[in-house]
Amino acid sequence: MDQEFITIGEAARLLKQADSAVMLLIKKALLAGTLKEDIMKSEMREGRMMYLISRTFLIKESAKEKEAPVAKEASREAYYKKEEEPVPVASLEDDMIATLKKVIDTKDQQIGDLSGKIDQLIERDHETNILLKGLHDRLFLLEQGKSQEGKRDKEKEK
C-alpha cells in the first residue's frame, strides 16, 4: 500500500479545479464512509503542518465525478423522451378561452347581484325619506299647535 501523497494545491492543479473543490471532494468521501487514513495524512513541511491527499484517491474520485454528470444528463434526456407528445397550441388556447369565459360569466353574475342589491338600497332610502318627511310634518303641526295654544293662553290672561 505504497501511495503517493500530494498537497491540496498540487491536487487542485492535477484536477484543474479550485482548492475548495478538492476539499469538497475529500469531505464527500469522508461522509460516504471512507477512512481518513486511506485518503489523507498530515506532515510537517518547512515548519508548518500540511495535509496531503492520496493521488490514487484523487484520480478515482475525479473519474467518478466526470461520469456522474454524463449519467445525470442521460437520465434527464430519458425523462424528457418519456414525456407525452406536446399538446397543440390551439388546444391550449381553446382551454384558456373557455376558462376566461367562465370567469367573465361569474363576474357578470356577481355584478348583476350587486346591482339588484343597490336598487333595493335606493328603494329603502326613498322609503326612509318619505317616512322622515311625514314625521317632520307631524312634528311641525304639533309645534304649530303648541304655539297657537300659547297665544290663546296669553289672550285669556289679558
Please explain how this structure is put together.
This protein is mainly alpha-helical and 158 residues long. It folds into two domains: 5-82, Multidrug-efflux Transporter Regulator, Chain: A, Domain 2 (Orthogonal Bundle); 88-158. Helix content is 77%, strand content 10%. It has helices spanning 8-15, 19-31, 36-39, 55-82, 89-157; strands at 5-7, 40-45, 48-54. A three-stranded antiparallel β-sheet has the order 1-3-2. Helix 1 packs across helix 2. The termini are far apart. The mean pLDDT is 81.
Outline the fold blueprint.
Blueprint: E1 5-7, H1 8-15, H2 19-31, H3 36-39, E2 40-45, E3 48-54, H4 55-82, H5 89-157
Helix pairs in contact: 1-2
Total count of domains = 2
The whole-angstrom Rg is 46 Å
Helix/strand-derived category reads: mainly alpha
* Number of separate strands: 3
Sheet with the most strands: spatial strand order: 1-3-2
| Helix run count | 5
Q: Helicity range of the residues?
A: over 70%
Shape: elongated
CATH class category name of the largest domain: Mainly Alpha
Beta-strand level of the residues, as a percent range? Answer: 5-15%
Query: What is CATH's topology name of the largest domain?
Result: Multidrug-efflux Transporter Regulator, Chain: A, Domain 2
Q: What is the averaged pLDDT score? A: 81
Unreliable spans are none
From the N-terminal CA to the C-terminal CA, the straight-line distance is: 141 Å
CATH architecture of the largest domain: Orthogonal Bundle
Largest β sheet strand count, sense and barrel closure:
3 strands, antiparallel
Helix/strand order, N-terminal first: EHHHEEHH
